[in-house]
Design goal:
The complex is a heterodimer of chains A (96) and B (150). Chain A is mainly alpha-helical and 96 residues long. Chain A has three helices and two strands, in the order E-E-H-H-H. In chain A, helix 1 crosses helix 2 and helix 2 runs antiparallel to helix 3. Chain B is mainly beta and 150 residues long. Chain B is 5% helix and 43% strand. Chain B has one helix and eight strands. The chains are: A mainly alpha (96), B mainly beta (150). Chains A and B meet through strand 1, strand 2 and helix 1 of A and strand 1, strand 7 and strand 8 of B. Strand 1 of chain A pairs antiparallel with strand 8 of chain B, so a sheet runs across the interface.
C-alpha cells in the first residue's frame, strides 16, 4: 500500500535583500548554484565531498560568466548612451 | 495577528480536482506573488488574493508580480513543480510574508477569482531600502521542491 500526499516545502523559501545596492555577481552565483545542485547532509561522505568540489568549480564558473555578462551589457549601454548624445554618462557607466 | 507559518491552501487542493490550475510554463495559467505586512492573517483557510494589508512602497505594485513557472516534472515517484526566484528591484519595502495565487484559473467547473495557492511566512519582517528584495524558491527536487505530489 502506498500513501500519496500533496506537499509543499515549508522550510526552504528564503528572502534575500540588499540596501542601497543590487546583488553582486557572487551573491547571485551562490543562489544559482543552490538552484542547480542540492547536497544532502546524509549522502555518502565520498560522494558528498565530490559534490561539494563540483559545486565550488561550478560557482567559480558562474561568477566569471556573470562578470562577463555585466561587462558586455555595460558595453551595450555605453554605446546606446553615446549614440543618444550622452558621452559623459556613457563614460561613467563604462568606469563603473 | 500575524503570519503563523507556511501553508498550502486547502481550497487549492480542492481546485486541483476541478482542473482549475495549469502549471505549464509556456501555455499555463498566470501565477503571481503578492507581499504582505505583519498585520496580515493568512492560513490554510485563505482562499483568494486580497489587498488588505498588502505591502506598499517604492518598487512595489499592488497585486504583486507574475511568477515564472517551471514545467512540472517528476523524480522517481514524486511529481513536482517550481517557480523562478522573484525580485523587486530598486525597492523600499518591508514584508512579513507572501501569497502565491492564480490570476487566470480555469473556471470551467468552478467559479474562482484569484484563488490562493500557497501562504509563505518569512519568519520575520524582511526590509529593503533602495535595493533588491528577492524571494528565493528551494531546489526543485523530489524532497525540496515548493510543490510536490509524493
Amino acid at each position: 500500500m502506498s500513501n500519496t500526499a500533496l506537499q509543499m516545502n515549508t522550510n526552504s523559501v528564503e528572502v534575500h535583500t540588499t540596501s542601497g545596492r543590487g546583488f553582486t555577481p557572487e551573491e547571485i552565483a551562490e543562489r544559482c548554484a543552490n538552484k542547480i545542485i542540492a547536497i544532502s547532509d546524509d549522502a555518502n561522505p565520498a560522494i558528498r565531498a565530490q559534490a561539494h568540489a563540483f559545486r565550488e568549480q561550478m560557482l567559480k564558473t558562474l561568477e566569471f560568466y556573470m562578470h562577463e555578462a555585466i561587462k558586455s551589457d555595460r558595453t551595450t549601454v555605453h554605446n546606446a548612451l553615446t549614440e543618444a548624445g550622452h558621452p559623459e554618462l556613457a563614460n561613467y557607466i563604462r568606469r563603473l | 495577528m500575524a503570519f503563523t507559518g507556511n501553508y498550502m491552501c486547502t481550497s487549492f487542493k480542492k481546485e486541483l480536482m476541478y482542473g482549475a490550475h495549469d502549471f505549464d510554463a509556456s501555455s499555463g495559467d498566470t501565477f503571481k506573488i503578492a507581499l504582505y505586512t505583519s498585520s496580515a492573517t493568512m492560513t490554510a483557510a485563505t482562499t483568494a488574493y486580497a489587498t488588505t494589508n498588502e505591502v506598499s512602497g517604492t518598487g512595489y505594485t499592488s497585486g504583486g508580480e507574475a511568477l515564472t513557472p517551471v514545467d512540472p516534472t517528476s523524480s522517481g515517484t514524486t511529481a513536482l513543480t517550481d517557480f523562478a526566484d522573484e525580485t523587486w528591484g530598486s525597492s523600499t519595502i518591508t514584508a512579513r510574508g507572501a501569497l502565491i495565487y492564480n490570476s487566470t484559473p480555469n473556471t470551467t467547473s468552478i467559479s474562482l477569482t484569484n484563488p490562493a495557492i500557497l501562504v509563505l511566512d518569512f519568519g520575520a519582517d524582511k526590509a529593503v531600502s533602495s535595493g533588491n528584495f528577492t524571494v528565493v524558491f528551494p531546489t526543485a527536487d523530489a524532497s525540496t521542491a515548493i510543490i510536490r505530489i509524493a
